[in-house]
Structure prediction request, 354 residues.
Amino acid sequence: MANGILRHVNISCIACAMPKNKMSKEDFMEYYGPKLVNRFEKITGIKQCYWVHEKQTASDLCYVASQKILEQENLSGKDIDVLIFLTQTPDYKTPSTAFILQQRLGMDRESVVFDINMGCTAVVHGIYVMAGLLQNMGSGRGLVLIGDAIPKREITEDHTNSMMFSDAGSAILMECGDGEVPYLLKSDGSGFQAIMNPRGERFPVSADHVDWRTFQYYMDGQKVFNFSVESVPEAISEFCTLFSRKLEEYDAFVFHQANQFILRHIAEESGISQEKLPLSIQRYANTNGASILVTLVDELSKGKKKGTQKVMICGFGVGLSWGIMELSVKEIEILPMIFTDEYFKQGTDIQYLK
Prediction:
């Protein structure tokens, strides 16, 4: 059973970075017209989104978030023993982007670094994996980096795909300690086609055969909606039963920001007060795997709320996968949102391509 309590680990600090380039609803109205854009906003809640520039990637955003954490905690890359990067948009097909981040952050050769291909549940899976690694080591610190970005985004005929998503990067500092994190993880591979981008070895691209559909992200909207409003409330109920929790105990329910319509249905089905359901999707759109952390930063960063905040976080989506964790935010330093244009200039300096 993928449930239990992660012990002897602390979540110390969280930071998120967004690109500076903001796309407003007015930008989309020029292409789609006000009627379609306003209808989209009413359903999803999205008013604007942020896109990286053509040379900026998810790892650039995660690097900036990591640097801010290291600076805040008076650490250097050499103080980090493990780095995992959860993304669906790596810098390269190979090697793992984690190696580039290891080098940029100045981590030691003895550190453990790798990528995980994970989307909407990246936060809960990242914390789960990092906790296991730190528990095995018995001491040390780790960075869980989560981000997705698509350079050279354009407004296309697919208005949903164009307006729905933002690029974002995030970082979580975890350490061995006396903390506990209850968790529940689930997955259902029979739904693998519900959200996907089929480009890969099964659909290779060559000069003689280019099927542009394989470059596109696809989502079966009805299937994803049904999965979300059925599976997530069931998991919330199961989580509360497993750990003898009541919904009233929680100060906030921070969920993956799929869209406003789905989130409100989940809250209604689960018996969660809308007042305890923070939404960041209006300001930052759907930021994929980073969206839970983006919402935490938007809602709970320095000075916004005082005292202990008992928070249930929940990711759900691509896989299909879903998962829940409980966090005590009092022990977590949550840094203000960062906006950056920074990128890794050496990332395009590939010798054998010259």
Observations:
- The mean pLDDT is 90.
- The longest strand covers residues 168-187.
